[in-house]
Specification:
Distance between the termini: 109 Å
Largest sheet: none
Structural class: mainly alpha
Number of helices: 3
Number of strands: 0
Length: 86
């Protein structure tokens, strides 16, 4: 057990690598980025499902057949097409 204590003491006395100083910040930034990506992915999936649902519901509801109006709104009896008999 004394050998292990001596080895751990030697490791503790060794200088640390300078790359380890910024490791905490890099890990926390990575975690935050993954969390934001997950939230964006979930909201995009929700929007897609909502669009599919609205499209599906719109295709089930019967629509009225398209009919042309008897005369365009605001067309005067003096319009060129009326005067020429078209």
């Amino acid at each position: 057990m004394n050998d292990l204590d001596q080895l751990l003491g030697q490791v503790r006395a060794m200088p640390t690598d300078t790359r380890l100083e910024g490791l905490d910040d890099a890990v926390m930034q990575g975690v935050a980025r993954r969390r934001e990506q997950g939230a964006a992915r979930r909201s995009l999936m929700l929007a897609g499902l909502l669009a599919i649902g609205i499209g599906w519901a719109g295709s089930i509801v019967p629509g009225a057949p398209a009919q042309a109006a008897p005369a365009p709104i605001g067309m005067s009896d003096y319009a060129p097409s009326r005067l020429l008999g078209q």
